[in-house]
Amino acid sequence: MDRRSFLMGTGALAAGTTLAAPAISQGRKEWKMVTTWPKNFPGLGTGAQRCADRITKLTDGRVTVKLFAAGELVPAFESFDAVSSGTAELYHAPDYYFQGKHPAFPFFACVPMGLIYSEQNAWLMHGGGMELWNELSNQFNIKPFPCGNTGVQMGGWFRKDINSLDDLQGLKFRMPGLGGEAMRKLGVNVIALPGGEIFQALQTGAIDGTEWVGPWNDLAFGFYRVAQNYYYPGFHEPAPTVACGVNMTAFNELSDSDKAAVEAACQMENSLMYSEFVAKNGSALNTLTTQHGVQLKEFPPEVFDAFATASEEVIESVGDHDDLGKRILESYKKARKDYGEWTAISIQAYTNARARADASK
Predict the structure, then answer these.
(1) What is the pLDDT of residues 124-140, one digit of tens each?
(2) Euclidean distance between the first and final Cα of the chain, in Å?
(3) Which of 74, 118, 217, 354 could cysteine-pair with 78, CB 3.0–4.6 Å?
């Protein structure tokens, strides 16, 4: 090879190398995930991080997701707007935080006296729920995915005993979503607060009580240091689905395989988070009651029945908002009836029978 040919060849190689690098970098995207959780908070915060990391791995780094905890990029309750506008590409939060956008959003997290985990997933995946969720969220430039669940939650922490409906009058209580609307009907002064602000509000007396999730998370927040009465069952959140809302513009720019990777990462976290809460709530409850003197109490029937009545009134009102709200309500109610009949003779009947058998030993 002569000198002229060699130089031309190396020049072509150099040009090829120079051109290839931008092409590779252009194929990679850096996404921001905003959350409503404190940084690294057990279950919820760590679940969001798992999902972010899993998207990065499943796309082989073509989509790299960086997580921002509540307040790091935007305030907790502004995560929906951040993703809708494109300030961030994903949020991790239960959609009942965003009922101000449309009163039907809580149905895709949970509503009081609503579906349990298995029923919620059945409705979303096989009962038309996902189609309705997409129809609602797409109006805000968001593509939703289920991305976590805590299972049935506790009724909450109270400074004083709740023996009757009179004890609820004027109570300052933290509860989001339609459950909070139901409590208002019973004379409760309901206050919405993100997770990271609850303990201080309880400690200073800004609120008299709070619900959060359940023993594992409640132990981590240390609510037992301020309130000792821990009530069950939680009427307000029988199985809250945590959403991963994705900016639709950003999502539509992905290849089909990367879209599938995002969906798979969210679906995996939806299952993994639920199983983690089931695994850890029992031991956390034991710690609360045996080591920290927490008094475990059941709501009196009179109080719980009033919760149920108020919940029905609140839920029905969603159907009056618009046609979409009405269709979401009707679909959800049908699912609750259909799935509830099976739940009654399967999950509920079995666990009741198991409890009787255990008690007789």
Answers:
(1) 999 999 999 999 999 99
(2) 92
(3) 74
